[in-house]
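Subject: complex prediction, re-run

Hi both,

The earlier run crashed halfway through, so I resubmitted it with identical inputs.
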Amino acid sequence: MSLRVLVAKVGLDGHDRGIKVVARLLRDAGMEVVYTGLFQTPETVASAAIQEDVDVVGLSMLSGAHMTLAPLVVEALRERGSDIPVVLGGIVPPRDLDELKALGVAAVFGPGASAHEIVSVITSIVAATP
Amino acid sequence: MATESAQERWRRLFHAAPIRPGKFDTMSGIPLAPVYGPSDAEFPGVYPYTRGVHSSMYRTKLWTMRMFAGFGTATDTNKRFREIIRSGGTGLSTAFDMPTLLGLDSDDPMSLGEVGRCGVAIDSLADVRDLFAGIDLSTITTSMTINSPAAVMLALFVAQAEESGVARERLGGTLQNDILKEYQAQKEFVFPPRQSMRLVRDTIAFTAAEMPKWNSISVSGYHIREAGSTAAEELAFTLANGFAYVELARQAGLGVDAVAPRLSFFFNAHIDFFEEIAKYRAARRIWAKWMREHYGATDERSWQLRFHTQTAGVSLTAQQPEINIARTAIEALAGVLGGTQSLHTNSMDEALALPSEKAARIALRTQQIIAHETNVTNVADPLGGSWFVEELTDEMEREAEVIFAQIAKMGEGSMLEGCVRGIEENWFQGRIADSAYALERSFNSGERVIVGVNAFLEGNDEDDMATLRITNEDERKQLSRLEKVRHDRDGERVTLALERLGREASDPDLNLMPALIDAAKAYATVGEMMTALVGVFGRHVEVPSL
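This time it finished cleanly. Structure:
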């Protein structure tokens, strides 16, 4: 069965080039992709992920709000009893990486991450999730 | 009298133009003419302006080095503005944070984590006052990069100026106010497209009547390109939006010559050097032809496309960030050789964070090297007459005309209707996403090279650049500033002003600017004014599509 991914824009950031491109690349790799649309909250993303029964949530953030909002998405999922892993792509300074991982973000893809890297990391994260 | 040739007209204009002090020769002393070309060539300053809008170009005045900046609170950004001016910047451009761009106050629940992050947080008149404290707005022009709440920001700016004793007639500057490209590309929208266009109409009419030195719209291709379009799509979508605003103003009873001279443009400078130069040359020629032949403009200023340029943020890499200085220099040079009126150069660290002060200074220094060391400013349109560049310019124009025909068809002859329908039907958004995807695939396959990303990776592990850090402390500072404004103001006056705004919004024949200025002076917040308008106009929700 193919992997199901929810790609989501949380907060006020309207930059949607990255998320659309990545969504198509994931589809090319045989994954099923659902897109939330813009301006979601951590709660709407968590609910959609559970309802759509996805294997992984991918957030795209370029506005600098990742340290606040990405952990809130993880928290909203866990509060709802879900183990769905959350990955993040966008403009993320290297110094934030360790803290994001500590707060439960499974992987971070910076600018220039290749389709191959994104697909293989997501696949192995999902494989490692019970 | 015999018809004057382009060359004769150019000569007459050039001799009447003021020339800045300096020697216009090569480093080795070879004297240079202000422009080169055979007697039957096109010439700068002469219709259709392919070679530049001014006969003397940079011999009269260098481009404005307009650096885009904004982060944290108004006080933080004011400090950066002053640093830019101290370093020789000649214009300012304000970057607002996401809540401000979407018309939300800093204490709105949706603003959590976004306050002051990718621009300055502006909630009320108090913030605008601090933003420009100590900056002489009669000598430094200001551009405000805001769209959905553009009318609100204009009201705040007018209110601030009038409180400090500067009449609105004297204010010079630019409001981005280009809402069409928000739906197409940048996606910071609030109201539905047609309701938004009413606000654009009100700002055009208000500035035409009361602010003679103000550019009412900066029609922007920059964001269209950043969102993934090709160069020809950037060119065509942007000019089509420009045509749409001219038609909008005409519907409001304003003649093309009352509006077109007040429109300026804003293009991307991407890394494909000659394609970008051809794009700027084609833009000028197309605009001149359409204004004169299609819209019947008779004022020469209506024919002249003036533009700001920003180097391409998307071309920057997080890997080996120092090499972005080289990319930005090449892109900036394309803007200058293409005849830009104003330029922002990106900083090397912008694929990682907002620019540090040092990175921003290096970016400004890059412009100063081009302006003062390279001598490229001596001769107008130095690439004019190159068989390659002329053919590429023609090709850009041909591709743009094909797109104009498609938009006109969607609008049954109206570019205004075509642009709005194209948005409502996701036509622009779909084309941009398709182009972005095609380009990304070419990077992933290795067909196109990006140094440090898919080739030449040695050194990628050494990245350790100190970047600007914006903390939650800045968010807390802004929240307490806002709380103080709400506490100190006359609540009754605010309520009345917001009621008036809502009432007048319901009458499409009224111009909303007076009600907005009144509310701004009462210290109504950006969020309160926008909420009053949402109550009447509703909200736009984009149908998600991949």
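The longest helix of chain A spans residues 66-79.

- K.
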